[in-house]
Amino acid sequence: MVIDSHQHFWHYDPARHGWITEEMSPLRRDFLPEEYAQQCDESEIDASVLVQVDQAEAETLFLLNLAEGNDRIAGVVGWVDLRSPRLESRLSHFSRFKKLRGFRHIAQAEGDDRFLIQPDFLKGIAQLHRFRFTFDILIYPKQLPAAIELVSRLPQQPFVLDHAAKPLIKAGLGEPWSPTSKPSRKILTFSVNSPA
């Protein structure tokens, strides 16, 4: 079975999707299951893991609705407010959805490079393990030290490192992703856990 491990659907909205720059203009349109099913057939992809784009529970519910009864969607990574005082009840609510595998926060957009290990956020991520949810780490390379600290603080929590922390390929910087470099033990702690 071939699974696309990171895929998005959306109804394009210029305000909500302001991160789609002119350089990425082909993405300025709707992406929905019907078109994706055709591309899966052409590429021999059996299913995908649908990943959130908007930081709103409404987005999570939209994705779960698309996933319901759709065999092409093997799992969903949604969003929940990990700093909310009501987090436990929200996780309990979301644990009823069979295809919901985990959550992510767009940490790359946070102004604090150590956002991932802020006490209130760390406390929220620590609750995911009890509900068997993964956490997707979406960061830029400058945030790797905080991500490494996060992973080391929560050894029982399954993590997924999205986009390999976005290596600076355009800038010609291959470290520490270069196959010729000798990765440190800390980088190796980012082994990807399957959301399935």
Describe this structure in words.
This protein has a single domain (3-188), classed as TIM Barrel (Alpha-Beta Barrel). The protein has a six-stranded parallel β-sheet, covered by helices on one side. The protein is globular, with a radius of gyration of 17 Å. Mean pLDDT is 85; it is low at 183-196. The chain has 196 residues and is α/β, with parallel strands linked by helices. It contains six helices and six strands.
Descriptive labels:
196 residues, alpha/beta, TIM Barrel, six-stranded parallel β-sheet, 6 strands, disordered C terminus
Topology:
Blueprint: E1 3-7, H1 33-43, E2 47-51, H2 57-67, E3 73-78, H3 87-94, E4 100-105, H4 119-128, E5 134-137, H5 144-153, E6 159-161, H6 185-188
Parallel strand pairs: 1-2, 2-3, 3-4, 4-5, 5-6
Short description:
Helices cover 28% and strands 15% of the residues. It has 196 residues and is an alpha/beta fold.
The Cα radius of gyration reads 17 Å
Oligomeric description of these chains: single chain
The SSE order reads: EHEHEHEHEHEH
Segments where pLDDT lies below 50 for 5+ residues?
A: 183-196
Number of domains: 1
The dominant shape is globular
* CATH class (first level) name: Alpha Beta
What's the pLDDT, averaged over the residues? Answer: 85
Which structural class is indicated by helix and strand composition?
alpha/beta
Tell me the CATH architecture. Alpha-Beta Barrel
Q: Kindly estimate the percentage of residues that lie in beta strands according to DSSP.
A: 5-15%
**Biggest β-sheet: count, sense, barrel?**
6 strands, parallel
Count of extended strands: 6
Fraction of residues in helices? 25-40%
Number of helices: 6
CATH homology superfamily = Metal-dependent hydrolases
Distance between the termini: 12 Å
